[in-house]
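Methods — Computational structure assignment.
A single polypeptide chain was analysed. Its primary sequence is given first, followed by the predicted tertiary structure written as structure tokens.
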Amino acid sequence: MMAPLLGAQDLDRDLVAALEDPAAVERERAKAALGDKLPQHYRQVLDHGAAPVLLVDALATVGRLRKPEDIPRIVRYVGSLDPQVASASVESLRRFGHAGIAAVQALDNAQIDEPTRKKVMDILLRDHVTRCCKRDVALNPMHLDYSARFDELLSVQAPLHDLLLSQLREVGAEVRQEFSGTGRNWYYGMENSLVNFGGLAVALLGRDKPDLLEREFEDLTRNNEDEDRGWWGWVEYSPVATELAIFFARRGKPVLLDTLISRIEQTTRWMEPSQAAMIGLQVAALQFCATGDTSSALPAVLAAIQAMGANPSGSLAHAHYLRARILLAAGEQGEALHALEDAMECGPVPVALALVDNAFSGLADERRYRNVLRCVELGARRLPSQDRPWRKEDQADLAAAADPDLDE
């Protein structure tokens, strides 16, 4: 049994002792009885040390609170010789996002050996990549480029390109299956695969390491012979496949883009006009992002908007936002601003991408544009924290940066 801690005289000693009971049921009863006093007691446990079973519970409880002042308490146990304590420390740090990564980086060699540091950093950085990629999917379903798109991903002081390439290699078989014409084999847990949200990783490698990315996936452009397989139903390609098609089209190899567009368009054969409009919008976005062709993309977007009707929806809002981006690229600033206003009015919440999309920076002096941004600021508050735009000035809010999937 541990010695009484400073302040433990204010607690029931029998309850404190029960926190180390071998029986889990007794420990849970003690936790419930201590109530709001438990976190402060656990902080003292972490400060002074204790038996492994108590440290594991303390790390889990304190980590769930996500208080920045608790990070030094938690990180000191990352290099623990007890594997359960070390694992509990890492799991707690995962909740702190950027701050957890920085805390591990700040440890000196006397506190953690290099193999352990590398292992922990790999876990935390993979969490970081997942968090950034999922935010990109929520904010930017059209795969639009803007200069701040990679700010969150590159906000950690750690090399990421090798990790991103390694992660893409891990899902390479799934990506190649998408383009092979056989479809994807879905199985339990696949929703957590990088394929389903990792478009941002492809986009960053395409910007910074294009030759490396091309060598890794160039076989897709050589062996992809499209066949008319009589596609039925909805065909939707993953963010990774979509970004690869855009990347290779920009590199002068449009075969993947043509394949995606052909197969997607075939799904409209038996669809109602409103359903087909979504397909048309997806194709227009692909063409615009890959080639910058405004002359063909704009009519397709306008046709999709007309087919969608006047009922407000998130899809209609993003359609008007895409229309605004296309008009801006065509030099029609006045019409682009009008389309941007339409995007703010046609969905349940304004398109939050406008808060970080620098494409409209040329309109900064326009009163109407500033009104749009105020509208978006208010509307973004109604979004889950993981779907809001990431901005450097917002990083004091660790709770917003943490991964909600780790909550219990």
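Note: The chain has three domains: 8-127, 159-185+193-270, 271-386.
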